[in-house]
Amino acid sequence: MKKALWLLIGVVAGFIVAHQVNKTPEGRRFFAEVDDRTRSFGSAVVDGYKSREAELRAAVADAEEAIADLAKRVK
């Protein structure tokens, strides 16, 4: 319980410090840069996920087609 209290105190202190830093022009620039990089990273993750998903769907479709061809040969 004591560790959770310290964690909560740290989070609150972090928000207070971030709020104070954001009041300065340098702080706003810093947080804007962090925001841009975070969005860029998120976009890269989404693009990679969609690319890999398309590859896997194509592989599954190829496998289904091969299975269907084998099933026809067996009959």
Written description of the protein model:
- The chain has helices at 2-22, 25-74.
- The relative contact order is 0.05.
- Helix content is 95%, strand content 0%.
- It has 2 helices and no strands.
- Helix 1 (2-22) crosses helix 2 (25-74).
- The model has no long low-confidence stretch (mean pLDDT 95).
- The radius of gyration is 25 Å and the shape is elongated.
- It has 75 residues and is mainly alpha-helical.
CA radius of gyration: 25 Å
Give average pLDDT, whole number: 95
Structural class: mainly alpha
Beta content comes to: under 5%
Main beta sheet strand tally, sense and closure: none
Give the tally of β-strands.
0
Overall 3D shape: elongated
Distance between the termini: 67 Å
Relative helix content: over 70%
Order of SSEs = HH
Number of discrete helical segments: 2
pLDDT < 50 runs, ≥5 residues: none
